[in-house]
Amino acid sequence: xxxxxxxxxxxxxxxxxxxxxxxxxxxxxTPIRNVQAQPTDPGQISEILEQxxxxxxxxxxxxxxxxxxxxxxxxxxxxxxxxxxxxxMQGRRYRQAGLLARRNLxxxxxxxxxxxxxxxxxxxxxxxxxxxxELLQVLRRSVGPGAPPEILRQLTLASDAVERxxxxxxxxxxxxxxxxxxxxxxxxxxxxxxxxxxxxxAESVQxxxxxxxxxxxxLVAMPDLTPQASEAxxxxxxMQSEAESLFAAGELRAxxxxxxxARTALRLALRLSTGALTPEDVSAAIGHAQELQEMNAQxxxxxxxxxxxxxxxxxxxxxxxxxHLEEGRLRPALETAQNAAKLILTAIRRAGVTPPxxxxxxx
Length: 363
Prior knowledge:
Helix content: over 70%
Mean pLDDT: 79
Strand content: under 5%
Shape: elongated
Number of helices: 14
Largest sheet: none
Number of strands: 0
């Protein structure tokens, strides 16, 4: 079952969670002052218990807003532990109280760090899941049954992780959903590297070109595109035209990279046709540039100086795009990520290396 949640609804509901955790971040990073590894002084133990109580009270409403049952269960367990530590304190069993109180505060801090990560990435989750599902479909079509068993196993594991992440997301188990989605990303990138080296066939690239062409036609038929959306659409059409030319010249890897870049521009155009630029759009552009790097990783050690230079420049542009995004500068972040992708595509064309033909038994 897929959750029926719109991006704007998520931003309205959860947009303040990261801000709500700002004060918590200060508490998480504050050391316990003048406390031994196993405190026995009643004053120190009282201070630890008070810090833990305040942190718990800050985390509880955030966990409720996230709606994550696992987080709530963990908080209840830690509150029970805190009550046990306080009971030892009241019974003057200071050794047990000190050990349990310190452990409680440390575990609360770890939980707060996890919740901050979820809150920061939550607005991007749907877009991340969408990109992973599409990348999975592309790789399924590109990797033939004759691929190495390890590659086929990784593709199966990635597919399973994507499906289980979606199920966890529907159950509102955010911690598990993020863990599984990150696992699927890692596996998909490993398969991408294989595809970039030797896993392409003319038939698989042709299918991707046709799919992109159909998407362009659907978007062209949409009425009243905004100027920003029209600009993104035109960029997609240009990139698709280059992909078709490269395919005709037998440059399979370059053709696939270009048509996937055209799809990223199409997704952006579709988003801009209904609203303003969002962090999800920028995150998707950065993710696409990273995928291009993974699929063409061999260019980093190219014998052509200009190719290596462009590769290094693209890496710096990606780092800069991430910094812009973290600081909330969406337009510069998007433009920098797009420039990084262009540099990688230019490096691919400059290198002019086509992967060897795939043996007949792998198609």
